[in-house]
Write a structure and sequence with these properties.
Glutaredoxin; 5-stranded mixed β-sheet; about 20% strand; globular
Length: about 180
């Protein structure tokens, strides 16, 4: 019995190469389109350069307004008691407040349980910075924040200069120098 190899005409007549070139061109176009679109959770969110939205929080005996810190650099940290990375970054936030006293560290919790919030603050000895509970969640929603920790650097003129997503080491030389030079 003899088997004959039969030419595959679609391969030999160039259709294979044409399909490959077409697929490659489509891939290049998709990559270019993806590179041209931004993500608001990326390194340059839409809020950067804009005036920070003002908010007022009534937390037991204190009232906190973002506007009251105009003229100072503000490290606005949104957190929650159920967030492990938030607890991870608190020591460096407290240390930052101590090492760079002209910066205001404002830590706003958007917990829904006031008792859990107070217990968390007590158990973890949080202090040396402004800490407030926003049960209404208006402050974090004004910034578009729903997943803590997220932190905004607000310059003395009230403009958002940077946004950090996730826990940071706030005592790193790069961050401290950046804050000192705003």
């Amino acid at each position: 019995m003899v088997f004959y190899y039969r030419n595959v005409s679609w391969f030999n007549n160039g259709l294979y190469r044409a399909n490959w070139k077409g697929a490659f061109a489509v891939l290049i176009l998709l990559a270019a389109a993806a590179a041209g679109t931004g993500c608001d959770r990326g390194d340059h969110p839409a809020q950067v350069g804009m005036v920070a939205p003002d908010f007022t929080i009534h937390d037991q005996s204190q009232t906190v307004r973002l506007d009251q810190y105009r003229g100072k650099t503000v490290v606005l940290n949104f957190w929650a008691s159920w967030c492990p990375p938030c607890l991870e970054e608190f020591p460096s936030l407290m240390q930052l407040q101590q090492q760079v006293p002209n910066v205001v560290v404002l830590a706003v919790s958007f917990d829904t349980d006031a008792d859990a919030y107070r217990q968390y603050v007590t158990d973890n000895h949080l202090g040396n910075m402004v800490i407030a509970l926003d049960l209404s969640q208006k402050s974090n929603l004004a910034f578009g924040t729903t997943r803590p920790p997220e932190t905004y650097i607000i310059d003395p003129q009230g403009r958002i200069r940077r946004k950090f997503i996730g826990a940071q080491d706030w005592t790193s030389p790069e961050i401290e120098n950046y804050l000192r030079n705003l």
